[in-house]
Amino acid sequence: MTGTIWPPDFENCTDPKYLVLVQSLRCAVRSGHLAVGEKLPPVRDLAWQLGITPGTVARAYKLAVEEGLLETTVGRGTFVADGRLEPMLGPEPLVTLSQSEDVDLRAVRVPDVGQDKAIHGAMARVLAAEPSYLLCPDSVTDLVARQAVVNWIGHDIAARLSIDDVVLTLGAQNASMIAMQCCLHGSSPVVLTEEVTFPGVRHACRLLRADVIGVGIDQDGLRPDRLEEALRRHGAQVLVTSAQAHSPTTVHTPLARRQEIAELARRYNLQIIEDDCYGLNASETPSYRMLCPDRAWYLGSLTKAVSSALRFGFLVPPEGRAQMARHVMQSNCYGVPQPMLDICAELILSGEAAAIRQKVIAAIEKRVRVAVNILGSWDIRWRRDVPFIWLKLPQGWRGSTFVRACDARGIRIKSADEYALPDGQAPNAVRIALAPELPVADLQAALEIVSELLAKPPLWNEN
């Protein structure tokens, strides 16, 4: 590939330049202008040819590789891939499934602490009562499950609500979608969230045709000055945040910072959707639902604390908006299936779900200790009840390069790039999940390899 073939027209485009570049690559490959196996210029060379920044080219190359349009080989460069173009909803699925025998430290999984036995027992007790499962669930048949949720969630939330304030959902992702559907309006709605965030946020925004904008964070979470700047510039309707335990950084937002953000929400008429899925332990810090009950949506699920197989979540809308959220949920899927409601209510009201949660926390704490003992000399963020580590890479390593180096040693981890928003910047970091399915000795061995690699950054630089 030489000269100025397939030049994208940046002057007459309104889309981000990296997307225009990717589309131009697609067209060039489909038309045969770029042949399979043909080498593309290095990032800086192509950026100079096109008059754009190297970061824009790098982002376009990354997206094209994720689509299967291009392929990269360390030390050789970037080439047109030998494969068919397949449309994708996004570059990464929300559930990561390992297809190899490598040590997979990408996906967060719930430790096995005997959940199957407890779930089987709950099923047996529910079925012993010979319930009728002929009709769709409604506000009467889900009453016991909503009471169970009030018992399950933290005291600061439960102290201010009744069972009528609870909307049951098919997990936390569904709860987030329902809340956004209740809040977003207009032809070009805008959602704000942390500058690195759980990929489910951008998936939801894409499905709802909303623009998602990242807000800068620090050691205490969202920065109020950056949030106010984004509100002034974009006129956002919704903020999606995880203040209790943020993925991927593990950051906990303290009370003083939450109060500042709540005040900004009131001043700019902003709705706050708080995802508390990783808040396994009861928190002494009030939720946004307590700080600004007129505009805060609180959501959670049993996924991280009990079982990922139980697609049981809940949403607590602002005061007076539960009925609207319930109607939106019914319009989406008619509600959570009654057998699931009964099983989860039995688990919670019997006390078994709480007992499982404590065992899960203990299992997580054990693995966090292992990780901190091995990686503690590096720049890591961790919490004893959060099942992953956030590792800021030392000088000499880049996220993508370090991920490839670990992959070459049979260890799969996630770069910060996978948590960045479409037009955002990713920090030079990786997230390492603590793989409860692995024997502790295997996890320890894998983390020792990670530490060994951190100490030996490459001596060469990629173009």
Automatic annotation (TrEMBL):
Superkingdom to which the source organism belongs: Bacteria
Pfam families referenced in this protein's UniProt entry, alphabetically: Aminotran_1_2, GntR
Keywords carried by this UniProt record: DNA-binding, Pyridoxal phosphate, Transcription, Transcription regulation
The keyword Transcription regulation is annotated on this UniProt entry: yes
Protein name: Putative HTH-type transcriptional regulator YjiR
Residues in HTH gntR-type domain copies: 15-83
Name of the gene: yjiR
GO molecular function annotations of the record: DNA binding; DNA-binding transcription factor activity; pyridoxal phosphate binding
UniProt similarity note: In the C-terminal section; belongs to the class-I pyridoxal-phosphate-dependent aminotransferase family.
Keyword DNA-binding found: yes
CDD domains registered for this protein in UniProt: AAT_like (cd00609), WHTH_GntR (cd07377)
PROSITE patterns: HTH_GNTR
InterPro entries: Aminotransferase_I/II_large, HTH_trans_reg/aminotransferase, PyrdxlP-dep_Trfase, PyrdxlP-dep_Trfase_major, Tscrpt_reg_HTH_GntR, WH-like_DNA-bd_sf, WH_DNA-bd_sf
Signal peptide region: none
Gene3D superfamilies: Type I PLP-dependent aspartate aminotransferase-like (Major domain), Winged helix-like DNA-binding domain superfamily/Winged helix DNA-binding domain
